[in-house]
Design brief:
Layout lengths: L11 E4 L6 H17 L6 E6 L5 H14 L3 E5 L5 H10 L4 E5 L8 E7 L8 H10 L12 H6 L3 E4 L2 H11 L3 H5 L3 E5 L8 H6 L5 E4 L22 H10 L3 E5 L6 E4 L5 E2 L1 H15 L6 E4 L5 H9 L3 E4 L3 H11 L3 E3 L5 E3 L8 H15 L3 H12 L3 E8 L4 H9 L5 E2 L2 E7 L4 E5 L4 E6 L5 E8 L5 H11 L7
Parallel strand pairs: 2-3, 2-4, 3-6, 7-8, 7-9, 12-13, 12-14
Antiparallel strand pairs: 1-5, 4-5, 9-10, 10-11, 14-15, 16-21, 17-18, 18-19, 19-20, 20-21
Helix pairs in contact: 1-2, 1-4, 10-11, 10-13
Length: 476
């Protein structure tokens, strides 16, 4: 039986040893190679990288063999490399695109297959569909050259993507003031690819950088998964007082996302971080330009857009929508609810390293701790409160969808429903400008219920009503 492979919001992911096998990775690579050939890019180079998950380097080698077998030349990273560094390498090397072996924030049981275009950004939905259609039914249809032979023939070259990325970062931000600031920065790379980057970039001066979870451990102990949200960040948050840190920077497994803990050991949720980063660009750096956001992230961005007279564009969930829109409108910043943010002047791809550096620069320029920066933001746009529940669901997805579509609630969490938006999932816009969003994960068999509101005491009620609308509350 042919294993069907479908790309979600950010590539294909699966359970290692079940659907995620060397055979299926080779099939996916053949689909990507055929896609590049169809686009007239068969003579270009492709960047291939991987994260620290189990056998990541071996899956990456298998990818390189198939690309070489299709006549494509390959820049293969010489070790685990952050996704934003791989994405920048595409532009730096003028490559046709990239394949990155990573499951990002998924549990230790999984691995993944991310694809990037010549801009270093996510491939749009149409392109992903074309890749899927090119995936052969069997591994035997994937052309291959053994890695040793491909290296000897010059079809594959190992390279270190870090130095050129670091030089590029220095054109976007002056790191010296951060080094001189005397901050105490705690970093949690979540056993992933972000380990060592902040000590290298901002260490060596008065600022001290401390790391936890910096080794390679594909089991991701002390967390459910390497995703920078509670409860996975709880150990890092607890360590803030131990290290007397001014801030906690958290990267997910492939370092394309960032999470923030404040000086008091409190988590700063992803929506607030996005608004803070946009505020920093607009107020501190004086930048102007469109803001691109997924519909699952904060309405604080619309408020900032109105204050600073910049347009705000909403997209579906995932950088396969955000990246093309950023390029289309020449956006200043783009981002999503998961903690991924992209910036003008860089590639249209989430960059958890650059986002962390910008946050530190915000602290230095304003001479304020994270909680104080949040107070400044709320003085501008008012307080906003956010939470989300991810849960497996029983029964048929179509039944769930029908239940949601026919619910037609007048109120949610005691707030009147003003509008239902169905661009990507089901977003109920509430009378305070807040919202409830119900959508199915594109990469995992779970349903997500999110909300944002200006009422701190309504969050739980809104989420509870969301679960009820989706029919989750009455499941065993």
């Amino acid at each position: 039986m042919v294993q069907e492979i479908r790309f979600g919001t950010d590539g294909w992911r699966g359970h290692v040893g079940e659907d995620y096998t060397f055979a299926n990775v080779r099939r996916c690579t053949q689909g990507f190679a055929s896609y590049l050939a169809d686009k007239g890019l068969k003579d270009r180079w492709v960047v291939v990288g991987h994260d620290r998950r189990y056998r990541g380097e071996h899956f990456a080698a298998a990818v390189a063999e198939v690309l070489a077998g299709n006549g494509l030349k390959v820049y293969l990273t010489d070790g685990p490399t952050p996704t934003p560094v791989i994405s920048y390498a595409v532009v730096d090397k003028k490559a046709a695109g990239a394949i990155n072996i990573t499951a990002s924030h998924n549990p230790y049981t999984d691995n993944g297959f991310k694809v990037r275009d010549s801009n270093g950004g996510a491939i749009d939905p149409d392109g992903l569909t074309r890749i899927e259609k090119n995936i052969p039914d069997s591994e035997e249809e994937a052309k291959r050259i053994p890695l040793k032979e491909a290296l000897e023939k010059g079809m594959v070259e190992y390279f270190d993507a870090a130095p050129n990325y670091v030089e590029h970062i220095k054109t976007l931000i002056d790191l010296q003031p951060i080094k001189d600031a005397g901050l105490r920065v705690l970093v949690d790379p979540m056993w992933g690819n972000g380990a060592g980057w902040f000590p290298e970039l901002i260490g060596g001066g008065k600022t001290e950088v401390f790391e936890i979870h910096q080794d390679r451990n594909p089991n991701f102990p002390e967390m459910i998964r390497p995703e920078p949200i509670p409860p996975n960040v709880d150990v890092g948050l607890a360590a803030i007082s131990e290290y007397k840190a001014d801030v906690l920077l958290i990267n997910d497994g492939d370092a394309d996302r960032v999470g923030i803990g404040d000086e008091n050991g409190e988590f700063v949720d992803q929506l607030r971080v996005y608004a803070l980063l946009a505020y920093y660009l607009l107020e501190v750096r004086g930048e102007r330009g469109p803001i691109v956001k997924t519909l699952s992230t904060t309405t604080m961005l619309e408020k900032l857009g109105a204050i600073y007279d910049v347009p705000v564009y909403n997209t579906g969930v995932g950088f396969k929508y955000v990246a093309p829109k950023m390029l289309e409108v020449d956006a200043m910043i783009g981002g999503e609810e998961s903690g991924g943010y992209a910036f003008k002047g860089n590639v249209p791809e989430r960059d958890g390293i650059l986002a962390g550096l910008y946050f530190l620069d915000f602290m230095v320029k304003m001479d304020k701790k994270p909680s104080e920066l949040l107070e400044l933001l709320f003085e501008k746009v008012g307080a906003h409160y956010y939470d989300r529940i991810d849960t497996p669901f029983k029964g048929d997805r179509a039944d769930k969808i029908n239940r949601i579509e026919t619910a037609n609630p007048e109120t949610i969490g005691g707030l009147k429903v003003k509008e239902l938006v169905t661009v990507d999932g089901y977003k109920f816009v509430l009378e305070d400008g807040g919202w409830l969003l119900i959508r199915f994960s594109g990469t995992e068999p779970i349903i997500r219920v999110y909300c944002e509101t200006t009422y701190a005491d309504r969050v739980d009620a809104i989420l509870k009503d969301g679960l009820s609308i989706a029919g989750i509350d009455d499941e065993d």
